[in-house]
Amino acid sequence: MDKLYLGLALFLLLTLVAGMWRVLQGPTPADRMLASQLFGTTAVACLLLLAQALQQSALRDVALVFALLAVVTAVAFVKRIWMEKHDN
Questions:
Q1: Cα–Cα distance measured from residue 75 to residue 57, given in angstroms and rounded to the nearest whole number
Q2: Which domain holds residue 44?
Q3: CB 51 within 8 A of CB 57
Q4: pTM given for the model
Q5: Domain count, the chain
Q6: Contact 63, 34 (CB under 8 A)
Q7: pLDDT band at residue 21, thresholds of 50, 70 and 90?
Q8: 3-state SS string over 13-80?
Q9: How far apart (Å, rounded) are the C-alpha atoms in residues 79 and 73?
Q10: How far is Cα 85 from Cα 77, in angstroms, rounded to an integer?
Q11: How many CA atoms lie within 13 A of 80 on its CB side?
Q12: Helices (H) and strands (E) in the chain — how many of each?
């Protein structure tokens, strides 16, 4: 079962390549922000899979911190875009 978790974590890491392409080629800042949210979500999922496979409960705590940071960055982005639209 541990090999399955490790394989799924590797697959999720490979999906980050698609996300990196979107960050580099995204036509709008919103596309880039959504791709960075993909990084946060994928990092949380990878850490949870690794925590289960390696029996390391500390990785669950790190995953929780990453999830909270992803929310903060999304709120900061929306606030910035909201202010730019209303300043014009």
A1: 28
A2: 2-87
A3: yes
A4: 0.79
A5: 1
A6: no
A7: confident
A8: HHHHHHHHHHHHHCCCHHHHHHHHHHHHHHHHHHHHHHHHHHCCCHHHHHHHHHHHHHHHHHHHHHHH
A9: 10
A10: 12
A11: 9
A12: 3, 0
